[in-house]
């Protein structure tokens, strides 16, 4: 039972039709017609013209809105809006109010400080010149892969690009930021418990509190989690000084997972790096080899964030090798870890642009999920089951910036959304779907998905860089923003 919520704000993985059959979720649907609300699943026709999805719904043939790849976004925008309206985000979502700095503005500023031209930075970052210019001008959203590549080329941390930690104008956001210093203090004093510390509670009582923290993370209730963790960490540190019980070290590793989740969400990557080292140390002291493997799965997120894709793939492979190569012969917990490591590899491969490798890892993850069919145990908090593989299929397509494929894979989940999916993962899924609809060229459905994400996990959505980037891009490149979009932007703290 390890905390699941430390990784969910990174992309999942990818797969294809064969993977979907193995995972128990079909991936044969296409786009939507003109109606809003939950799209109807359809069958993608192989006869559709390039750049369009032709669906067959109840015998009718419908051409969806044109699919816009990243390279084509400016052409799509030219058809959707007047040129003079594109740069009006600086006027406050076209309403005369102030706006926060965008990722593109930060990239341009850092680029100029380095003395790089746009072509020079594009060459150093191995990104397209066209995409770089669109991101800088606010005409295309920055993807996580783009952010990682540019941060690496500019020799800065990712939060310098995303602008995290965000300055929250709303009282609850300020309260969330306020939990950071008590958490830092708990980390720095972990080996210095108070001299007059009271006797720690029993193992069972401490485990109950750690389980409560885990549930708060699954529910994306980060404020309550952040308020709970400092005292819990202090009491656990007192307990491990009284007794070198491996079970206490396991609980400490889980509690640190909550700190990792908060640090990642709020953009304190330096703090998260320290916490990940603590998690691995406590996992080793727990004498549980599967827990150690799980911490290496977690480390993959950090490698993903800094665009260390090859190293991340290597680490996932090394960790899988320690578990074996046939999930059907493994204990269920090991099979869940094995499959989750393949999902992490599929994400790393998708971010690197290798669709075939991403699909292969997802196929193997689907096979592992089938070996656990009927087992609902949430091993190590991984939520590994066929439905999770289906969610990863959507994410992989989004990371590859393939809007048509992302929506094709997402449509079945509109009709059969996993009822047992925790809010933190539901929120992340709908963020992925929103990005997929945007790449597909349908801003209305993109905004609908953002609202679904907010309904599932508001604190997660409010602090997610991709949500802010997408809303800012939609506001600055389309027609005059709707009142709903302006209110959503205000709720995010963008205006």
In short:
With 495 residues, the chain is mainly α. It is 63% helix and 2% strand. The protein has one domain (17-43, 159-492): Serine Threonine Protein Phosphatase 5, Tetratricopeptide repeat (Alpha Horseshoe), CATH 1.25.40.
Taking the sheet with the most strands, its summary is: 3 strands, antiparallel
Instruction: Tell me the structural class.
Output: mainly alpha
Low-confidence residue ranges: 1-7, 11-38, 40-90, 94-98
Q: What fold name goes in the CATH topology slot? A: Serine Threonine Protein Phosphatase 5, Tetratricopeptide repeat
General description of the model:
The protein is mainly α. The protein has helices spanning 17-23, 73-80, 92-96, 103-114, 118-125, 129-137, 144-154, 158-162, 171-178, 180-188, 203-218, 222-242, 246-266, 269-285, 289-305, 309-321, 332-352, 355-371, 386-399, 403-415, 423-440, 443-456, 458-462, 465-477, 483-492, and strands spanning 43-44, 54-57, 60-63. Strand 2 and strand 3 (60-63) form a beta hairpin. The two termini are 41 Å apart. Residues 1-7, 11-38, 40-90 and 94-98 have low confidence and may be disordered.
Protein topology:
Blueprint: H1 17-23, E1 43-44, E2 54-57, E3 60-63, H2 73-80, H3 92-96, H4 103-114, H5 118-125, H6 129-137, H7 144-154, H8 158-162, H9 171-178, H10 180-188, H11 203-218, H12 222-242, H13 246-266, H14 269-285, H15 289-305, H16 309-321, H17 332-352, H18 355-371, H19 386-399, H20 403-415, H21 423-440, H22 443-456, H23 458-462, H24 465-477, H25 483-492
Antiparallel strand pairs: 1-2, 2-3
């Amino acid at each position: 039972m390890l905390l699941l919520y430390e990784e969910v704000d990174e992309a999942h993985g990818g797969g294809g039709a064969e993977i979907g059959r193995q995972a128990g979720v079909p991936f044969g649907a296409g786009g939507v017609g003109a109606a809003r609300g939950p799209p109807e699943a359809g069958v993608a026709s192989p006869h559709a013209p390039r750049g369009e999805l032709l669906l067959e719904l109840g015998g009718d043939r419908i051409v969806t809105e044109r699919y816009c790849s990243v390279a084509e976004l400016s052409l799509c925008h030219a058809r959707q809006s007047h040129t003079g309206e594109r740069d009006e985000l600086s006027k406050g979502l076209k309403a005369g109010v102030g706006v926060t700095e965008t990722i593109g503005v930060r990239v341009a500023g850092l680029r100029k400080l380095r003395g790089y031209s746009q072509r020079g930075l594009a060459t150093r970052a191995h990104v397209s010149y066209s995409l770089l210019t669109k991101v800088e001008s606010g005409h295309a959203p920055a993807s996580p892969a783009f952010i990682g590549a540019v941060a690496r080329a500019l020799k800065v941390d990712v939060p310098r690009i995303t602008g995290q930690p965000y300055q929250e104008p709303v009282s609850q956001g300020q309260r969330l930021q306020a939990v950071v210093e008590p958490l830092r203090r708990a980390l720095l004093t972990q080996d210095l418990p108070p001299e007059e510390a009271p006797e720690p509670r029993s193992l069972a009582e401490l485990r109950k509190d750690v389980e409560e923290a885990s549930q708060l993370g699954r529910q994306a209730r980060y404020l309550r989690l952040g308020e709970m963790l400092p005292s819990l960490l202090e009491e656990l540190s007192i307990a491990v000084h009284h007794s070198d019980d491996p079970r206490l070290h396991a609980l400490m590793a889980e509690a640190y997972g909550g700190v990792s989740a908060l640090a990642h969400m709020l953009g304190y990557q330096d703090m998260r790096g320290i916490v990940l080292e603590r998690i691995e140390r406590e996992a080793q002291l727990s004498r549980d080899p599967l827990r150690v493997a799980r911490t290496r799965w977690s480390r993959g997120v950090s490698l993903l964030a800094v665009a260390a894709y090859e190293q991340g793939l290597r680490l996932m492979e090394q960790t899988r090798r320690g578990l074996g190569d046939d999930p059907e012969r493994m204990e269920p917990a090991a099979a869940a870890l094995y499959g989750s490591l393949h999902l992490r590899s599929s994400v790393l491969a998708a971010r690197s642009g290798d669709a075939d490798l991403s699909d292969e890892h997802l196929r193997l993850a689907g096979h592992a999920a089938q070996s656990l069919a009927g087992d609902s145990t949430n091993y190590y908090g991984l939520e590994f089951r066929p439905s999770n593989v289906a969610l990863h299929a959507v994410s992989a397509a989004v990371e590859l910036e393939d809007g048509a494929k992302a929506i094709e894979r997402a449509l079945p989940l509109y009709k059969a959304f996993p009822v047992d999916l925790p809010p933190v993962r539901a929120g992340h899924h709908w963020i992925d779907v929103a990005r997929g609809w945007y790449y597909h060229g349908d801003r209305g459905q993109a905004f609908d998905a953002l609202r679904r994400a907010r309904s599932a996990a508001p604190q997660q959505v409010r602090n997610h860089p991709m949500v802010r980037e997408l809303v800012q891009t939609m506001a600055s490149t389309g027609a005059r923003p709707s009142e709903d979009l302006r209110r959503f932007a205000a709720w995010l703290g963008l205006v």
